[in-house]
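Review box. Two proteins, two foldings.
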Amino acid sequence: HVQLVESGGGTVKPGGSLRLSCQASGYGTSGSYCMGWFRQAPGKEREGVAGIDSYGDTTYGDSVKGRFTISKDKDENMLYLQMNSLITEDTAMYYCSRGDTRGQGTQVTVS
């Protein structure tokens, strides 16, 4: 049974920072994979935020490049998203994903 559980969301002022975490369970530690974060705000389409593969290669959405950093700790099955210089447009529910599985989401509000 695979599961992803996000944490770390909250309310922050513009210019502030937050660090999101995602605990992955039920996955093996071998083999290649890709994990990532996406977000969705009310009335808006889902937006890919960042991704990282098993080799450590990363990708970012254009709107967050230079401000957000994705990282992982394979031994702990943890995925992180460091978000700096937050702006109001970053307000959304943030989800951790791996394959077809996603977590329940964690709300980020910049206000």
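Next protein.
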Amino acid sequence: VQLVESGGGLVQPGGSLRLSCAANGFTFNNYGMRWHRQAPGKEREWVAFISRGGQPTNYVDSVKGRFTISRDNAKNTVYLQMNNLKPEDTAVYYCNVVDTLLRNYWGKGTLVTVSS
């Protein structure tokens, strides 16, 4: 299993970014996918989930209405569109999949910095 995140960077408050996670090594459209994040000095937290078919989706309360998770099963890619970014969204964002044996797989993450 390989998960590779991209799309992070420096953005001003109120700005937008779109993260991507390219997956391979497993049958992508058989699994739900998750985004997590870890802010400096804090524990990793779950951010969003998308089921294998694209619906349903779920979000942590702090990002509801601002972030949208989506997937393209033809491209084996999951996305996280982040709008109206806030300084507290600053974190390393990780893509995650859990297999049928409940093993977690993670990418190396992509850094999002929200600052003026």
